[in-house]
Amino acid sequence: MKPIRILVDSFADEDFLNAQMTNAREILSRLSEDRFHVSTFVVGRPDARLAHRGSIRLIQLPKRRQTLRILNEFIRGKHDLLFYLKPSPAARIYLKLRRTWFDKRIVIGMVESQSDLRNEPTIKPEQVRIWEQTVLRCDRLFSNSTSVKASLEKEYGLASAVVPTGVDTKFYCPNDREENVRVRVLFVGSLRPFKGPQLLLRAAARFPAADFVIAGDGMMASALQAQAETEKLTNIQFAGSLKPVALREQYRLADIFLFPSRWEGSPKVILEAAACGLPVIARNDYRPETVVDGQTGFLRNSEDELLERLAELISSSALRRKMGRASRLHSERFDWDAITRRWEDIFKGLMGHRDEAHK
User: Fold this and answer.
1) Within a 10 A sphere around the Cβ of 96, how many other Cβ atoms?
2) Where does the pLDDT of residue 356 fall: very low under 50, low under 70, confident under 90, or very high at 90 and above?
3) Number of helices followed by number of strands (H, E) in the chain
4) Taking Cα atoms as reference points, which of 275, 233, 268 lies closest to residue 254?
5) 269, 277, 88: which is closest to 165 by C-alpha?
């Protein structure tokens, strides 16, 4: 059977740690080499897993002025599917141009956050507009959770199928270590208001016998550090933005994962923490399916409720171990190997429908 040719609108660079790009690389590194031939873009050093696969073609881009090169590949590239379309100028131009010719290629967009972007003040109006003019105009849309699917239908009346975000359970896994003398609580994420990293400082003040680690960077970094110094919170550490190996070490050193974000799709950090055997405390605003309330951790609707559950976990080593084991088992349902098989079936199904329609 002739391989399906896929152009993936992402970057293969190993140092590009944007969630969309890392998700795309996880899928590409697992696609069947016999059934799929893939092209994707690269600027610097590529992820070794992709560079060594004969079925993947890496398209070199300059560091600046990439739009025309990407657009040329969109238009002239010999692909059947365009996957993971980004909200970019090249994508916007391509989607306008393709209306003028008989383009049988299928464009696939992923929606990985709530669709009420206009209500989030840290997202600029121009970012919302280009997302509406690109991703939302794809031929097929996929959401990474049932909550994201419902949000897309509510805000735009658009249907989508659900394919969850995955996790590499071989890389993110628990290690054998002695129990910490002081309970260690971890947050991972960009330091933006809706992510709620400020709750870690409130928790550090309330639980002086525990240690707290904030891993990530962003607009709130300086203010949070200044607040910690002013309040003399000696039990909080700012780890900054970490690459995967160092981040995995933080998960393995921790006892509890606290993620107070109120506006998400299906955050991969929850899965990474779960795969490393951590109980997870998160908000229920976006109904994350990666946490089973009362079994793998807790889902609550307010900061006070989150802190109440944190107190419960800090006080009980047995509960932490029990929920941590359940968390690891639950994460295995989302392993990237299984998620990639689902994408393979989707790609084959879309091609089958296209070929039938054009007979």
Assistant:
1) 11
2) low
3) 13, 13
4) 275
5) 269
Strand order in the sheet with 36-42: 56-60, 36-42, 4-11, 81-83, 106-111, 140-143, 161-162
The two domains 4-166+335-357 and 184-333 share their CATH topology (first three levels equal): yes
Distance of CA 191 to the CA centre of its chain: 16
Residue 251 to residues 171, 230, 274, 336, Cα–Cα distance (Å): 12, 28, 9, 19
CATH code at 4-166+335-357: 3.40.50.2000
Q: Where are the domains of the chain?
A: 4-166+335-357, 184-333
- Of residues 116, 196, 122, 199, the one with CA closest to residue 152: 116
| Strand segments (E) across the chain | 4-11, 36-42, 56-60, 81-83, 106-111, 140-143, 161-162, 184-188, 211-215, 236-240, 256-259, 280-283, 297-300
Structural contact between residues 288 and 267, judged by C-beta atoms closer than 8 angstroms: yes
Fold observed for domain 184-333:
Rossmann fold (3.40.50)
Calculate mean pLDDT across residues 220-240.
97
* 184 close to 253: Cβ distance less than 8 angstroms: yes
> In angstroms, how far apart are the furthest CA atoms of the chain?
72
pLDDT single digits (tens) 232-268 = 999 999 999 999 999 999 999 999 999 999 999 999 9
Residue with tokens 């992709």: 50
Separation between Cα atoms, residue 86 and residue 100, nearest integer Å: 21
Spatial neighbors of 19 by CB under 8 A, at least 6 apart, are: 112, 165, 268
**C-beta of residue 272 within 8 angstroms of C-beta of residue 167:** yes
Q: Which pLDDT belongs to residue 219?
A: 95
In whole angstroms, give the CA distance from residue 309 to residue 206: 13
pTM for this prediction: 0.93
User: Any residues with CB less than 8 A from the CB of 120 and at least 6 apart, and which?
Assistant: 194, 263
Is pLDDT at 69 greater than 90 in this prediction?
yes
